[in-house]
Amino acid sequence: MDSCAHPFAGLMSEKHFEALISGARDYAIYLLDVAGYVSSWNAGAQRFTGYSPEEVIGQHFSLFYIDDDRATGLPQRALDIALREGTFEQEGWRVRKVGTRFWASVVINPVRDEYGAHIGFVKITRDITERKLSQEALRQSEERFRLLVQGVTDYALCILSPEGVVTNWNSGAERIKGYKEPEIVGQHFSCFYTTDDQNNGMPAATLNRALKEGRSEQEGWRVRKDGSRFWAQVVVDAIRNEAGDLVGYAKITRDISERKNSVDALERANAELHQAQKMEAFGQLTGEIAHDFNNLLAVMSSGIEFLMTQQPNHLSLKMLDSMRRTVDHGATLSRQLLSFARQRPLEPGHFELTSVIERFEPVLRHAAPSSVDLRIEASSSVRPVRVDVARFETALLNLVVNARDALSGPGSIRVQVNDVDLSTDGQIGTLPAGQYVQVSVIDTGCGMSPDVAKRVWEPFFTTKDPEKGTGLGLSQVYGFITQSCGEVCIESEPGAGTTVSLYLPVAGGNVDERSSVPEPTSETALSVLDEGDSSCDGGNSSEASTARS
Questions:
Q1: Helix axis angle, 541-548 relative to 522-531, nearest 10°?
Q2: Which end of the chain is more exposed for a tag (fewer CB within 10 A), N or C?
Q3: What is the pTM (predicted TM-score) of this model?
């Protein structure tokens, strides 16, 4: 090529120019005149675009632009910017001779002579299609990952800084924890923990474990934005760069409250089944013992009656009378055992318990000393139940006496009667869904531990001294309420009092007007007062004595 054929011969020797052209195969380096027409062409330009020098010299450089860029006047703007600002840099699509596109990095600089006059432009183009494709592939991969993460709604996925600050938040995290991304990004992740866990340093311990071991897995209570709790399964992974430096943590949280509730419900059901099986075994054994005991008492009673007909002397008569009282006491004990074993037949009728309790109230007040505030809190009208009134009164009196003995001084006992509706099976014990009447005896006494509360229904179990009770009071309550197709529940904490609730199913139809409520006999009341059991250590003997007077 003759160097005198273009205006740059004075700026660069032919030797230097040829060296530049031959040494730049990775770059398209060519010259444009002031109007943008190609005036020189190197081997790199030919390799990128496919044009030979003969085909392109004299053509306008807009030849290499795509149609959209030409339509918007981009080629001329590029020259104007280069002339005005001294340089023009851009990345964009360019077109080869065969019509295919490549992604180019373009730099255009103006060229001036020794007098400063503008004589053209030098244009350097590099094919960076591979880098562009790699970047695009990375971008698409990141976008797919972002969409995947944002599309996960069953897991809370978030990224934490090395200090534990939230830097990324997905839609699952928003659904589970209630925070929108602008609300939580920038906050420390410890806000998801309960106050106790925060005070115990659990958030920091979680990050330390993940840092040392690479991962931390745990289950526990977590807190939503509204303050409610949920049982969470949490995995925290440490994230490191290629150099092994910590750059943050990936935290995945799943709400498994339903699973925990199911596990807890299964454990409760197993415990209730075990308790029911144990009580059933107790009942069978107790019933057999009571029947054998009754047979022995019958022989003794017959013998006493026979001896009474033999005209005994005064001393013998006194001894026989003592023996008769002992047999009667044994018969009462046998009835209590049969009541627990559910082998005493019921004599039920339709009754409204509010009326029953109002008539029975004098006996209840007789059981409580003046230092105890006994209150009956019953609705004016509750739904009728089918119940053996005499057995119900005995059970209620047992509960009041038990509450009385749990008080170590002045206190209160409340008897509450309410209608309740159970919407689901098993909501209370083993009861099916339906309508019930709830009778609760609530005291402010010493309460009891969970271990004691589990055993209060067992016959002969008592925390009192042997001479102060047989331990059959609450077992009678259990036997009666179970035989009546109801349920009995106890809630108690040491020092916080006790609540015992009886649930009796509502009976269909109206109250049986022919079923009059029997007057409680003094024999029944005194029997309960004498046999009343307390499940609290150290019953008040002075109060018990007062109640019996």
A1: 170
A2: C
A3: 0.44
